[in-house]
Predict the 3D structure of the following.
Amino acid sequence: MYVKTIESMKTLKIVLFVAIILATQNLSAQQHKQWEKWSFLMGEWVGEGNGQPGQGSGSFSFTTDLDENIIVRKSITEFPATKDKPASTHKDLMYIYHDNTGNSSKSIYFDNEGHVINYTITYAENSTVFTSDIIQNTPRFRLSYFLINKDTLNVKFEFAPPQNPESFKTYIEGKCTRKK
């Protein structure tokens, strides 16, 4: 009787182990599928643009992290000195994550200027748009990526004043190419 109990426990452990492996593979496939709409942005990009801060150049990347549970966007932009301003560097970091419904529709942004911005993400064919929440007495921001072709993007960063949060104006815009 004791031997049968041990064998039953071994069988149960094997069945549980196989069930866990199958469930994990299914979850991994679902997570990968949830990032499909991000495929055109994944990788490293370089570009140049202009706007209110002046002419700048920089790079950014979109990569998965934490076993493909999040996407991390890192960016750096350098602005050369002008007669009115010294040279400056803008660095930022964004985490894109699944909300409580499992949709990749939220992100949080941090930069070296002390900004923290929560975004809601919307999608259209070949574009992804991050729009900040409306917060009283705070400007609103919108960051858009538009695919031109498989290796070229148009990137636009806009802001709207607190008193008119739907009135977005372009702050900086530029074209980016995929790093090979």
Observations:
- Helices lie at 2-34.
